[in-house]
Amino acid sequence: MARSSTESEYKSLANTAAELQWLQSLLQELKMPLQRCPTLWCDNIGATYLSSNPKFHARTKHIEIDFHFVRDQVVQQKLHVSFVSTRDQLADLLTKPLAVARFTHLRTNLHVQELPIRLRGCIELKSVDHVEDCADHVEDGAATKNQAKPQQAEKT
Amino acid sequence: MFILIYVVDIIVTGSHFAEVNKLISYLGRVFPVKDLGPLSYFLGVETLHDGGDLILTQRKYVIDLLRRLKLDKVKLCSTPMSTNCTLSKFEGIDFDDPYLYQSTVGALHYLGFTRPDIAFAVHKVSKFMHQPKDVHWQAVKRILRYLKYTVNFGLHITQSDHTLQGFSDADWVGDSDD
User: Fold this and answer.
1) Of B115, B150, B169, the CB nearest to A12
2) Partner-chain contact A96 B120, CB within 8 Å
3) Is the ipTM above a cut-off of 0.95?
């Protein structure tokens, strides 16, 4: 049980740091290592401060040691913790219901956007049976799709 | 090079176009394979190419879902969840068709690939799968009304400088049931 908002923010910082570490090893495995250390954005000044200052704080001495692993990561320069204003806190979209204006703002920052009108007609035509109708409109040739049909399927 | 196989559907992609083609023709010699050209539709996810950018959308999936639930004529909503929404497992009366609730929420989960904007609302209604109440079904319908409003939305993937960013936030005492 967290005793203060800073503590709960700090715990969530540690959880996110673990998640980032996992993503990093996934990218490593996919042969796409990162050029720079990841940035972790947090909208709580106390938690941001706590993560970079290895000093002993009288009011945070009860925080369990495993949550302090985020500190080790910062010291080893494997992680960068920065403060983000609540307005640009992307995670808010995933933690609370929001009003229209802020919801729309954060949704755009998450790259969920309306399709350009010129691309929409193409979709209207499209259904599973008409995939090929659309292939002509597509410009990029790097990605290729194949459909393999095993012989057993043809019998049915 | 990346190869993704789902039963009979295959995506082959990579930075070397010649290598990709070589693999496809090799597969063609071993299995009966039909090359459908550049990626456009895979497992309900439509792929659109916009210059160097990629747009993923599940528009058709949303339309089919709304039709199946006979909700294609409902009023629109600009957010997936009302701001004063506090769902609780102790409120309301039992919803008469739990199977419908479960399958609809399951269908909404599949939109997670391209619609992170509804992730939180879907997560909330998922907590009541075991015993849905009528108020929870209202919340599900609200998500569907939002989806109808934003049916033309998709996830835009652009080239970036390849960095990893995390956003951390805690929801302190946000759950009324705990």
Assistant:
1) B169
2) yes
3) no
